[in-house]
Amino acid sequence: MDLSNITFNKDHKLEAAAKDAATGIRLMTLAFIASGVAFGLAMLASASHDLGALSTVVSLAFSIIALGAGAYGAYLAASALDWAGYITGVIVLGAIIPYLKFACFVVLMAFSFFGPLGRREPA
């Protein structure tokens, strides 16, 4: 078995940044879904008297999942893009505020797919 033609990626930092950006995007997608489920369950709780308490508790659980996944996913994606620490902090804080998080996630996803991470040339 000849292994002389095997080459490895020499830019480990770029590889790690791409992996972090992909994980961040997955977590932000999970946060979108969990937020939608939480909103749907909150509407169900307000409309139904029989399942109101259970729906409220499950809706709260999905809201907490969305908060955690969104904040950590935003941190990973912003860090992978090599943004400054204060900008990353603003993005993570924006992930916590209900309606602002959607705008932050859209910006991060757009930069992750089409931004500087895709244009980097290995050194």
Keywords, separated by commas or semicolons:
123 residues, mainly alpha, 5 helices, 0% strand, elongated
Low-confidence stretches: none
Q: Indicate the percent of residues in helices.
A: over 70%
Average predicted local confidence, pLDDT: 78
Bulk shape: elongated
> What letter string, H or E per element, gives the SSE order?
HHHHH
Distance between the termini: 31 Å
Give the total of beta strands: 0
Explain this structure.
The protein is mainly alpha-helical. It has one domain (14-117). 78% of the residues lie in helices and 0% in strands. The protein has five helices and no strands. It has helices at 12-47, 52-80, 85-96, 100-114, 116-119. The longest helix is centred in the N-terminal third of the chain and has 36 residues, at 12-47.
TL;DR of this structure?
The chain is 78% helix and 0% strand.
Secondary-structure blueprint:
Blueprint: H1 12-47, H2 52-80, H3 85-96, H4 100-114, H5 116-119
